[in-house]
């Protein structure tokens, strides 16, 4: 009798095949968007009261040149690690975007002659690094096989 129950239970737990097996990128994008929006909502609800209370201090710290230096020292190794783990450095376009972007960010943060245009250089550098990671993720998905 227990065999009949386990057989019946296992037959109820089977999952029907996906009617659109090639739709995983669309689903992944929608999942990623939903996760991101949920995270933004959570951060907004939890952090906004503290951010408002800290505005006077944040205004002084955000403009400090040291903040940019610390951020590039954190972002550059993380970016290199992420691209290295996924093979991004083997793709010439991805590597070029990342190297130029990180170079601009590093230059804006550490080369005094670039301080005059630090904001513009940092924006362009960050956009190039973001483009490198976006392109790398697109190329990685295109080459990724699913069973």
Task: Tell me what you see in this structure.
79% of the residues lie in helices and 0% in strands. The chain starts with a helix and ends with a helix. The model has no long low-confidence stretch (mean pLDDT 77). It is mostly helical.
Largest sheet: none
- Helical stretch count? 6
| Proportion of beta-strand residues | under 5%
Number of strands: 0
Low-confidence stretches: none
Q: How do you describe this structure in short?
A:
With 147 residues, the chain is mostly helical. It is built from 6 helices and no strands.
Detail the topology: elements first, then pairings.
Blueprint: H1 2-12, H2 24-53, H3 55-62, H4 65-86, H5 92-110, H6 118-143
Helix pairs in contact: 4-5, 4-6, 5-6
